[in-house]
């Protein structure tokens, strides 16, 4: 029940039952989020161009951790914060996959676009990456292997995913079991995508429309199945900036390793619209 409906019904602030108060708080919270988003969008400088000219750096991370310096999939915490701090201070606009698709469809893109993604759903994505992203008002998309949710403490649980979703992060599908698509049948491809989407809906309240191919492996049949299941776009592990010509279901990304800040900056050295 909205506030106006409550007053019309003879119910006044401070006099709601628990369910009505919960609904009003939810409505107010949603309005606040919309207002904040509108204020952010007002500050963004957009350019419009032919769709074929749009290119977007989609950064690919896995883990943010100091555990194993020799593992190229683990970016040390201080290096990750240094990277995010630089992006924020330089005025880059963080884009979720929905924003990326819209940019490719309309040709309207921020002057300094960046899309930050994480694969697999490690717990440090919540304890470290999410914490740092929030500190700098940045956002990212997290692709989750859903069979690990609420099972293995090395990975994020459903409460973590819900909180991140509620704070503007993208929670998307990395399938249920993380097996290479090129090694399984068409039916199994459909099954692990559908199972992943269902788990995200059941455990995190997410309507997932984006996919990350396990180990980056995919083929034409995989793309066909993804489209049939309503997947709007999918990312690969192929290196490079994402472009319209790649196709929405085979978007390239830039792998981020434990590089120093100058190497990180060089990724964007000739890239500002």
From TrEMBL:
InterPro entries: Glyco_hydro/deAcase_b/a-brl, NODB_dom, Polysacch_Deacetylase. The keyword Signal applies. GO terms for cellular component: extracellular region. One of its GO terms (molecular function) is hydrolase activity, acting on carbon-nitrogen (but not peptide) bonds. It is found in: Secreted. One of its GO terms (biological process) is carbohydrate metabolic process. SUPFAM superfamilies: Glycoside hydrolase/deacetylase. Residues 112-273 form the NodB homology domain. Keywords: Signal. Its main location: secreted. It holds the Pfam family Polysacc_deac_1. This is Polysaccharide deacetylase.
């Amino acid at each position: 029940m909205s506030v106006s409906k409550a007053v019309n019904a003879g119910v006044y602030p401070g006099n709601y039952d628990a369910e009505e108060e919960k609904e009003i708080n939810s409505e107010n919270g949603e309005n606040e989020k919309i207002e904040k988003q509108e204020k952010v969008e007002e500050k963004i400088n957009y350019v419009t161009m032919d769709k074929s000219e749009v290119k977007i750096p989609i950064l690919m991370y896995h883990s943010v951790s100091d555990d194993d310096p020799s593992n190229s999939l683990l970016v040390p915490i201080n290096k990750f914060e240094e990277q995010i701090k630089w992006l924020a201070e330089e005025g880059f606009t963080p884009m979720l996959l929905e924003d990326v698709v819209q940019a490719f469809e309309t040709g309207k893109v921020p002057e300094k676009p960046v899309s930050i993604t994480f694969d697999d759903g490690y717990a440090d994505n919540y304890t470290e990456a999410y914490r740092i992203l929030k500190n700098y008002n940045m956002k990212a998309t997290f692709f989750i292997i859903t069979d690990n949710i609420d099972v293995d403490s090395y990975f994020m649980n459903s409460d973590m995913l819900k909180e991140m979703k509620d704070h503007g992060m993208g929670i998307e599908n990395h399938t249920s079991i993380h097996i290479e698509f090129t090694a399984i049948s068409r039916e199994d491809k459909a099954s692990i995508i559908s199972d992943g989407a269902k788990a995200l809906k059941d455990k995190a309240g997410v309507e997932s429309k984006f996919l990350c191919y396990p180990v980056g492996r995919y083929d034409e049949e995989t793309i066909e199945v993804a489209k049939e299941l309503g997947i709007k776009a999918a990312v690969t592990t192929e290196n490079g900036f994402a472009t319209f010509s790649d196709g929405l279901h085979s978007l390239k990304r830039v792998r981020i390793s434990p590089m120093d800040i100058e190497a990180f900056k060089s990724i964007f050295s000739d890239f500002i619209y």
